[in-house]
Amino acid sequence: MLNNDIGPGEIPEAERVYQGGHAAPAQASEHGRKKPVLLAAAAVLLFAGGTALGTVLPDPTESTAYKSLAGEKSTVETERDAALSSYASLKGKYDSLENGMASRESKVAAREAEVGKAGAAVKTAEAAVKAREDAVTGAEKAKAARTVGDGTWTVGTDIEPGTYRAAGAVGSTCYWGIYRSGSNGSDIIENDIPGGGRPVVALSVGQDFNSTRCGKWEKQ
Q: Does residue 8 carry a pLDDT above 60?
């Protein structure tokens, strides 16, 4: 029968572990119960020590190194803000210059377009003047070809055949004569000293015409 009367510090008979036929000492169980107590005491000591250390540690913000770093940080931030302000100012000036350049380029482009139009107008005017000059020159050449001055001219070679009239009133010393070509003035067909007015002559191929002090003759 089991003995239920267990004294202090003893363990029940049923809880004893038998190894090799021998009962384990009762002191082992008592030692196991002491471990939680020791661990709790250690935790209390550590907590108390940590609290004590926390109360005596210095404030890091009051250290010289922290204050030096804080001062450097403040200086760097000030320099950064100044750099940002300078950049913003320079950026504003750059944008202003860029906008001004764009405006000037636009004006230059417009001016170049106007110059191009003016150049085209000048070329058109020059072409018109050239055409006018060519027309006048052509008319003058045609008129010159139909005009005869003082000298001896072979009709059909030097001048065209046809009717010619003095371009202006002739003087008293005007003389004109029509001769057979190749006769060197010896075979006179017709001649006159009109003495004034605007005389008229009819010239044909095979004739020579001589005009002396009569001015210009124009073909009619």
A: no
